[in-house]
# Entry
Amino acid sequence: MLGGLLAQFDSATGLDATLERTLDLIGVFFFAVSGGLVAVRKGFELVGVVALSLVTALGGGVVRDLLLGATPPTAFSDVLYLIVPLLAAAIVFVAHRPIDERLGRPVRVFDAAGLGLFAVTGAVKASAFEASAVGAVLIGVISAVGGGIIRDVLANDPPELFHPDSRLYAIPAAAGATVIVVAWRNDFYSGALAIGVAAAVFAIRIASLHFGWRAPKPITGRR
Amino acid sequence: MLGGLLAQFDSATGLDATLERTLDLIGVFFFAVSGGLVAVRKGFELVGVVALSLVTALGGGVVRDLLLGATPPTAFSDVLYLIVPLLAAAIVFVAHRPIDERLGRPVRVFDAAGLGLFAVTGAVKASAFEASAVGAVLIGVISAVGGGIIRDVLANDPPELFHPDSRLYAIPAAAGATVIVVAWRNDFYSGALAIGVAAAVFAIRIASLHFGWRAPKPITGRR
Amino acid sequence: MLGGLLAQFDSATGLDATLERTLDLIGVFFFAVSGGLVAVRKGFELVGVVALSLVTALGGGVVRDLLLGATPPTAFSDVLYLIVPLLAAAIVFVAHRPIDERLGRPVRVFDAAGLGLFAVTGAVKASAFEASAVGAVLIGVISAVGGGIIRDVLANDPPELFHPDSRLYAIPAAAGATVIVVAWRNDFYSGALAIGVAAAVFAIRIASLHFGWRAPKPITGRR
# Structure
């Protein structure tokens, strides 16, 4: 499905603004599904499902836009950014059972797709504003992981990102954002690169879940 | 008390900016009392009472203003927005016992009053800025529920909003904000409508507490 | 060490902008070490250590800048604000054991140093913007305590600030910010005052830890 959708954008080269918006909205959809499924698993009702869908989908981008001074954030000025996650929440509300049964650990797959897409679109948007190079990478990472962190904080869970036994998550996002920022500053950024980097971040995340890759622990840790 | 205060504003028609500011400050007072009472119940000391009062009272409005790019937020430029909740915190600090004894479940009553007032003033302010219609409704809801969510996160409680057995809270706020946004865009917004909608949201919230109304649960939920 | 570094700035009088930036960066370093040590104690891996270092060091200042409308926040435009905490995180990652062993309760000492420095630099920056006097004091306090609160929320701990048996923390920060705002508005603010107030806040915080000073509890509290 992802491939089919992305092929459409590839054919729409030259329309980069539209490309990033489309990638962003696909990420919004995936993150919204992931947030809604977390809410269903926690036994939340309608408001909880809608709220966790919206927050997971839009939280990272809203923080990105606030940091860049791009107010009101896209999520509040471009109505598609609310319609897409509300649609995702409705789908989860009605059909979370088949979604859960068809896909093994669906939350993490949708989440990984959103991770790659948002790391790219966040780094692109930050590069287009006044952020420093390192700041633009960090804003890419925040865009990618921010919604999930806010989701976990609101669900009163410790952020999954920091679990001692969590798999690579922020690191592939940071690597992807770095590639985008370097490319942008050296004038070889392109829509194809954006899609490729998003796919690579997704693949590294999924591989790290599958093979159990972890980030290193502090040296001489006591336990 | 609410009725008496509101009657004053009604007589001050034509001064809409003042009306919304007054409604907003009344909401600030009610939310500050509600936040302070939560802090007292948790055994917090002075700083905790003041901090939860301020955060509950101002959190929703500050997030609203940040989203709209209206910086510094009213809470930091209009000194009454700090004096009112500090006064409320002082009252709670000294007299939380009679407040608790006079009113049955006072936190929820004060909270419901703040909910209705902030849903209205948030939707009005968002409508006056560049937000989309759906975005303006969402900003109204965020204004209304944001302070309570930040209060719960800081008190390390799961947000009350998402409890599976919580009563209607965000839904009346969303309904009220929708009425305001529709009225604004079709030029029949008025001060009387603002007060009426705030009162209706308050009434629905109190009724839902009394009659046990709940939001629907996800379809085919497993438990 | 603090004394030696501060002596350097004193000799650099006349360069106030540079002075505040330097004080700010020293605070960033101390808070980053404090956040990193919390992450190590919690058993977090690389991402957790880096994230808690960055968030503790930059969170208060980022919230301050968002409230003042100073976007992108210094942390994202001035690259030193990322290099310094990343360096601190690397030091903690490699050498947390000797740091822990040399200094008795090092997290709290580093944290107290950051508290004093950020209360001062936050109040100065807010005074230079449009905040009301009370608002500027509050922004100073938020700059000083915000990073620690975000650190505790992300680590899923109840904010240390609100513990019933916590020692004076926000109160010395508020006192220090008040002195700065009063001085600024009456034209007797100076670099020497800034350093003196930061040192006084640090000293009061350390003394309150040592002597067990606490904030008062609500009157007629039931327990």
Q: What stands out?
A: Residues 1-15 of chain A have pLDDT under 50 and may be disordered.
